[in-house]
Amino acid sequence: MVRTWTFRLKAFLLVLLGLFFSLGIDMIPANSQITSSSEHTNLVQQTELTANPEQLLQQGKNFYQSGKFPLAAKLLTQAANIYQSQGDILNQVLALNYLSLTQQKQGNSTQATEIVKNSFNLLNGLKLNSDPAKKIKLALTALTLNTQGNLQLNQGNAEEAIESWKQAAKIYGEVNDEVGKIRSQINEIAALQSLGFYRRSQKIFDQIQQNLHKKQNKPEIQIAGLRSLGDVKRANGDLEDSQELLEQSLGVARKLGSPEQESATLLSLGNTEFFLGRRSQLRNTVNGDNPSPFNCGGITKKPQTKNSKAINYYRKSAKSYQKSASKSTSKLSEVQAKLNYLRALLELQQQPKAEELRSLQTEVDSLNPSPSAVYAKVNFAQSLVCFAEQENPNQENTQPDLENIARLLTKAMKQAKELGDARSISYALGNIARVYEYNKQWEIAREYTESALSFAQSINASDIKYQWEWQLGRILLKQGDSQGAIKAYTLAIESLQSLRSDLIALNLDTQFDFRDEVEPVYRQLVSLLLQPSTSSKDISSVKEISQKNLKQARDVIEALQLAQIDNFFQDACSIAEPKRIDQIVDNGKIPTAVIYPIILPDRIEIIVKLSRVKELRHYTTNQPQTEVEYTLNLLRQKLQQRYTFRDREQISQEVYNWLIEPIEKDLQKNQIKNLVFVLDGLLRNIPMAALYDGEHYLIEKYSLALAPGLQLVAPSQENKKLQALTGGITEPHQGFRALPHVAKELEKIQSKIPSQKLLNDSFTNKSIEKQVTSVSYPIFHLATHGKFSSQVEDTFILTWDGKIDAKELKEVLQTREESQGKRFRKLNPIELLVLSACETATGDKRAALGLAGIAVRSGARSTVASLWRVDDESTSILMGEFYRQLAKNPNISKAEALSEAQKLVFLEHRKHPYFWAPYVLVGNWF
Questions:
Q1: Do 922 and 907 form a contact (C-beta atoms < 8 A)?
Q2: Which of 684, 712, 740 is the last residue of a domain?
Q3: 24-61 burial, b if ≥16 CB within 10 A, otherwise e?
């Protein structure tokens, strides 16, 4: 369910935190006494008459903080002009900084840039004699650098923003302004993390923490600073760290005896606890489904099997929100906490009391006009719809009080228009359209959606623009305009792809709503492009779909794979090369077929790219998603049970018939030797090698590989140098069982190719980093415990002295710091990464996404890993044969070498797929 307003402050916080912190304004907006629109006019006229620049500046700041940006811009411009006429350059620059931020909030980046340039020009031309004046000039230079950093990050130039904030922090240090320094460093952390430099950001993070704990005489700074760091950690998905920091902030606030500070921190803590619940819950879900315009389906119409951990976190968040509301000294903050409390109740599937809703509606209605008040009204309207659906989950025609909801949204729209804030106007109009869509009034829903879209386009707000383009696509489809719907869906995906570089929009809300708010856009467009024929068959059917539609559908599937990897790491650092998709298959030495199966609610669609065949092939298997996922879950269970035979073969053959049997003739006709799968959903948890045709396993007929989209497959190096860094743990350690055959596994590798070995207590984080960053080993083989999870923080490999998580592994393998300690450069890419003793997390249905994420972001061209833990004796045999094949035949592909090793185990050691099937090759297969 969309809850954009509640956490929108978090997204803006990362770029505006410096301003709020420097002014001593708490990050949860305080309630300001805002006059009516007619009073605004009188006030502006009055201030124009008095021409008092101090009053203009203060009122402009007030308007800015309450979201009245056009009024703020007018008054701040006047203040700056008066200061200019008075020759007061320092105050002019201060006013210009606020004006630049105001223009940024309105999407006027050109004007904002010019204002920053003007500020720097004024400061550079200012000659001052007294030391106090020089100190103020330096402080204003730092402030302008902060404003410039905000603008640069808004424009997607994170590296430039980092440099601006680094300079600002240095200047603040020179003038002994520790608060300003902390402010700039927190912004720098946000930008570094957006680029994936987590270790660099952690160093700054540690410095800030140390400085904050020195400020015992300034508890307000400690509270706000710890809360800011907690919010940054939450935005980055480091939820446990966020929780710890916010609890520290809460402890200081309680000692201080400040209800306002305690309320603000409790609200932030409740948000972190809520997302901890979401993270636990989403491990049990696979593909998103969004049947309702208000996206209530995930929490109402489908019974959720929430685990006890998720329920606990939701209960904690509900209590934190209640406490925050009770202690709040700000009406807006109190309402925000109460609305978040409703969201927690929805996840707990608990109905609030009727009188609570009536009382809250009165409070929401009485909020003074501001963008946050607009979002509050929309949020409350959404909650009313979802509570109505939750109360009657099995009734198809559940009707909430649409008249009351429409009234709330109309009032929100009127307030947004009074404010002149295009973003909140768009948000209100789009949600009014949702009411009409909900009520199946398609034409008026379309009109409101197009109006909302127009406002979003005017400020280039892609994060809400895509929602209205998607909404328009759904409405046009209901009106029978399938081509118009395809166009709207296509624009929605283009908007989503533009968000890859808009680092501000990629916040934690987006990450956890990805399955309900992003994935369905891609899946629904694929479904539209590959409309099923009217004559369906039980197993499969070939349909005449245009090559244009097939290519677009293939591109959409590729884009979804890329979006899932970006979402996993919460950044947009995957390097995609879409032009290479066909070339990489056609130019390969081995005849290859790339198979794209995508699971839709009513069927499986399969697109196939064959080597040197221009036209794509297309097949449909008519099986509903519920049956497909049940069968795949059952097959995974049977494959992991060592003593299952006939029933496992029957289930495996059923999946074979869905995916392979329809395309078998094409594969034989084109003499295909290698299959590459771009898998979707639960299919990622199934080793394709174990699919069974009734007589043979798939691995007996083809070499196999997986690819998280061909646009993410890196080309292979021409000269394949076989030299490896190997490492592992044989002894029981940190609660993990012993792997006694690891020593033999590494010895076998060493006997086949030159290698450097790190075993047991020499296999530490520092030794790994030292070896990787000093020698460009083409092969990196780790025989240690590890886990792949759908959550990046739970994806790790075990070392002797700890764990290396997915983000740290990415940095270790991809970059190194030069001796100066200031610049970073890429290492030579790793040709092959092998994780021979890892497994996917138990109970996590999307855990294989962690494997795909590691494969893509490690920088390795190819990755070999296991989907489940196998006894290390079988692993030792398989890995020994894998390297023997690579060493004896320089022309063999990695996919062929792995297939030969799997067949050796199958034919000479263990027949059951449990022992040989889970090993998969991801990425470059040649």
A1: no
A2: 712
A3: eebbbbbbbebeebeebeebbeebeeeeebeebbebbb
Distance CA 501, CA 127 (A): 40
Do residues 690 and 914 touch, judged by C-beta distance below 8 A? no
The answer to whether residue 910 sits within a structural domain is yes
Adjacent-strand bridge partners of 780: 725, 833
On whether residue 689 sits in a domain, the answer given is yes
* Residue 191 and residue 235 in contact, taking contact as beta carbons nearer than 8 Å: no
> Phi/psi zone of residue 802: left (φ > 0), alpha (ψ -120 to 50 degrees), beta?
left
For residue 677, being part of any structural domain is answered with yes
Show the tokens assigned to 765.
């984080």
Taking the chain, what is the end-to-end CA distance rounded to the nearest angstrom? 43
User: How many domains is the chain built from?
Assistant: 2
- The C-alpha atoms of residue 736 and residue 839 are separated, in whole angstroms, by 13
* Whether 786 and 657 share a structural domain: no
Please report the beta strands in 561-702, taking only residues with DSSP state E, as ranges in sequence order: 592-600, 603-610, 617-621, 674-677
Q: Which domain holds residue 857?
A: 724-923
Write out the H or E segment, with its range, that includes residue 495. Answer: helix 482-498
In degrees, to the nearest 5, what angle opens at C-alpha 772 toward C-alphas 769 and 775? Answer: 135
Structure token digits, residue 356? 């609570």
Domain for residue 589, yes or no?
yes
Final residue before a domain boundary, out of 670, 691, 712: 712
Using the structure block, give the residue that is written with the tokens 């707990």: 348
Per-residue model confidence as pLDDT tens digits over 710-758: 777 766 666 667 999 999 999 999 999 999 999 999 999 999 999 999 9
Render pLDDT for 766-820 as a digit per residue (tens, 0 to 9): 999 888 888 888 999 999 999 998 888 789 999 999 999 888 887 777 654 433 3
Q: Is the pTM of this model over 0.70?
A: yes
Do 687 and 738 lie in a common domain?
no
Entry field: residues in the chain: 926
Measure the CA–CA gap between 88 and 424, rounded to whole angstroms: 36
CA distances from 76 to 31, 38, 299 (A): 21, 20, 45
